[in-house]
Amino acid sequence: MTQPTPSAQLRAALDLAERGIPVLPLRESKGPMGNCRACRKNACGGRPNMKTPGPCACAAPCHAWAAATTDPAVLTSIAWAPAWRQAAAVAYHPGGTGLTVVDLDNVEAVAWAWQNLPSTRTVSSTRGEHWIYLGTMTSRNAVRPGVDIKSLMSYARWLGPGSGTMAPLPDAVRALAVKEPTPVRRTSSPASGSAPAGGGQCPHRSPAYLERGIAMAEQRIEDAPDGIHRTVYRMFLAVLSAHGRCGCLTETHIGRLFTAAQTRGESLRHCEDAWTNARTQLGM
């Protein structure tokens, strides 16, 4: 029986995997493939924070960035075939190969990088450039206008090997991912019987309370029959209104919300916009 000819995306993925770069297919929206039915709502028992690739035994390319692999048998398996047929591009897990990508999304961001960051290997993107450094760090989006950091627990679109000598990850890039403390908003005197803003013990610091809130938001996003943009925004708004001012939310929690949205087809940019709009609505 004649074997089907591998797609251009699969051929590129196999070439990268042979070089030790963990890869995964991307949709036309630049988002990862959605979880299969068996893995939706974390039914597979996979680790919800996905700190390491391979969160469960599922054979399909599930779990966003954590699906990235260098195993050619997995990449060419029957379970991955539908994903490659839909794939519009190939992504890789920078942190999985010891790298950090500074994603510069426009010419202004590129100009800023030339003035403030050490030169390193670069590759052109649709609207800007990827600057690639040797070393890993926490990933964070929108660290400044038009600048995202993709390393651990993240993925970046493969745009080619780039040019230039790769430099060690500098402190200037690491500093971008350090969040400034959210200033306490001064409010008028609260009603009698309620704790002052910032006073007393924060009830949201109960791990179970916070976990229920995040899990409920994930489920609402996954179960939305339509209007996914609206649902994602509403869930982001709900989580931020409950937990956004008391220091409970971590990068892991935010990553779970973004992953839930992306498995429903939301692009990373839509997630970032929804998150920013929710913070703006709440005056944060």
Description of the molecule:
With 284 residues, the protein is α+β, with helices and mostly antiparallel strands. 33% of the residues lie in helices and 13% in strands. The chain has 9 helices and 9 strands. The strands form 2 sheets. Strands 3, 4, 5, 6, 7 and 9 form a 6-stranded mixed β-sheet that branches. A 3-stranded antiparallel β-sheet has the order 1-2-8. Helix 6 packs parallel to helix 8. The longest helix has 17 residues. The chain is globular. About 10% of the residues have low confidence.
List the helices and strands and how they pair.
Blueprint (H helix, E strand, L loop, with lengths): L7 H11 L4 E4 L45 H4 L5 H6 L2 E4 L6 E6 L2 H10 L4 E4 L4 E6 L5 E5 L2 E4 L5 E2 L9 E2 L2 H4 L32 H17 L4 H16 L7 H13 L4 H14 L3
Any descriptors?
3-stranded antiparallel β-sheet; 9 helices; globular; 284 residues; single chain; 6-stranded mixed β-sheet; alpha+beta; 13% strand
- Alpha-carbon distance between the two ends: 61 Å
**Could you list the spans in which at least 5 consecutive residues all have pLDDT below 50?**
47-54, 181-201
Percent strand equals 5-15%
How large is the radius of gyration? 20 Å
Mean pLDDT: 80
Give me the count of strands: 9
SS element count, helices: 9
Strand-pairing-aware structural class: alpha+beta
Strand count, sense and barrel status of the largest sheet are: 6 strands, mixed
Q: Give the % helix.
A: 25-40%
In sequence order, what are the helices and strands, one letter per element? Answer: HEHHEEHEEEEEEHHHHH
Shape: globular
